[in-house]
Amino acid sequence: VVSIFGNTGEGKSHTLNHTFFLGREVFQTSPTQESCTVGVWAALDPVHSVVVIDTEGLLGASANLGQRTRLLLKVLAVSDLVIYRTHADRLHDDLFKFLGDASDAYLKHFTKELKATTARCGLDVPLSTLGPAVIIFHETVHTKLLGSDKPSESVERLLHDRFRKLGRLPEAFSSIQYRGTRTYNPPTDFSGLLRNLEHQLSNNTMRSPRSPRVIFKALQVWCACTPVCLAGERVFISHW
Hints:
Elements: E1 2-5, H1 12-20, E2 40-45, E3 50-55, H2 65-78, E4 81-87, H3 93-121, E5 133-140, H4 155-165, E6 175-182, H5 191-201, H6 212-222, E7 235-237
Parallel strand pairs: 1-3, 1-4, 2-7, 4-5, 5-6
Antiparallel strand pairs: 2-3
């Protein structure tokens, strides 16, 4: 399962359409000021055999921010790979705060299940190795990409330093990678992001592939069977 997060208007749906579906509008996009993605949408990419999940923007005009946060947490729980999409000349603090807070919430709600999994499978590994991997997809126009002016330092170290300065430790994630692209002239180049995703998807060391049927049932359970699922949360299945 590959999901995407990011602020409203950053091009999340557009990114998924061009990375997984050759530009077809599987996930709706819009040039208007209003957010066109409400709730959560899911589609199957038969080429890569992955379920792709599009989410509502983090800074959208939602009537219930707590409800939306819980829904996004459920997406995080089922995801193997998470793309954080940002279209800005610099990486802003809200990105690191969101990922740090999401990590804390993930561990708070799922540590018991993760420990049971390691015990059942006889795994002597940190809990973070069972969490989803994160790829920060950063598109700039006027500024250099992260790390391009500090070749002696790894990008992962630079990201870690930003988290540390904000007092956020994203310990729930198995890895956090950076993929940047500088768009001098449109369209955006998504090829580097796709290579990163394909490399991550080929790694089944800790997470075994699941059939779309299993994932579909998990999505249904969110809003039908779980006591924490509130009325009004929406999960839409598109192009299954």
